[in-house]
């Protein structure tokens, strides 16, 4: 039906080593559709027509295309958010709102941001900023695939969905009071209210490419990222603001530590803004240059000290923590190292860390 499972835990021995709450194998539970990022990157690579395997790629993509369509329709069918039952602010689209299934009072494991602070108590009327941002990325990516395959009618359809999501992100999730993007819940009076824990959730529309260089919200988003009392640290962008009352609390998994996968998305979008004319171009260039260097230094310094790549890094000390030998998303630092140097300081800009 289009569902892709969270992970494979095959056999009783493997299952015995995984706590029950992490065995979330239910066909109405989603997880972040990062697959579409890889698909979009491949379309970018082959769109120039210079790759020698272009015909093979096109044949493969045609086979994959109906499965990708099935996947996005599964998300739209199972993860929709309720815009009709509760008193919501007027939005551009009456359809494009989303909520993660599989929520408990402490976790939304399906979001990948397990213990990141959300609305309390949980409510079926919630709308989640990160999920609608993922959906926008999916629609954009699938539109790119459709256009590449000359499926023009589909390309138009997904372009309209993408635009509706982009507009609804602002209409539903932007808090004028807090000057940031926020989750939404329903209060005791059945009114829609923002729940604002500044951190990765707040910048998800930016990280997934939903904000262009002319966005009126972009300046405030960049200010939040660059604020040392909020998200910025010498070791990367923190997962939760230092000013949040829950910063560093309880499990402290997504409540402050620096994650390379999210920082990769931030630095990638900063580069995109830095390379396009717009009111935030200069600021984005400076932030990109500094963040890129900080990330490379953080991984390199911890690696020289411990011999490991780590699951996450301490936002205060830069030390690697949690799971070691973590060469999954932490290896994205290699992608960061391969990005262009905009500092004007010459080749690479990595201060001799080529041995990474």
Automatic annotation (TrEMBL):
Entry's Gene Ontology molecular function annotations: Glc3Man9GlcNAc2 oligosaccharide glucosidase activity
Domain of life: Eukaryota
Keyword Transmembrane recorded: yes
Entry EC no(s): 3.2.1.106
Coiled-coil ranges per UniProt: none
Residues of the Glycosyl hydrolase family 63 C-terminal domain: 1-338
One cellular component term from this protein's GO annotations in UniProt: endoplasmic reticulum membrane
Catalytic activity: N(4)-(alpha-D-Glc-(1->2)-alpha-D-Glc-(1->3)-alpha-D-Glc-(1->3)-alpha-D-Man-(1->2)-alpha-D-Man-(1->2)-alpha-D-Man-(1->3)-[alpha-D-Man-(1->2)-alpha-D-Man-(1->3)-[alpha-D-Man-(1->2)-alpha-D-Man-(1->6)]-alpha-D-Man-(1->6)]-beta-D-Man-(1->4)-beta-D-GlcNAc-(1->4)-beta-D-GlcNAc)-L-asparaginyl-[protein] + H2O = N(4)-(alpha-D-Glc-(1->3)-alpha-D-Glc-(1->3)-alpha-D-Man-(1->2)-alpha-D-Man-(1->2)-alpha-D-Man-(1->3)-[alpha-D-Man-(1->2)-alpha-D-Man-(1->3)-[alpha-D-Man-(1->2)-alpha-D-Man-(1->6)]-alpha-D-Man-(1->6)]-beta-D-Man-(1->4)-beta-D-GlcNAc-(1->4)-beta-D-GlcNAc)-L-asparaginyl-[protein] + beta-D-glucose
Keyword Ribonucleoprotein: no
UniProt similarity note: Belongs to the glycosyl hydrolase 63 family.
Name of the protein described by the UniProt record: Mannosyl-oligosaccharide glucosidase
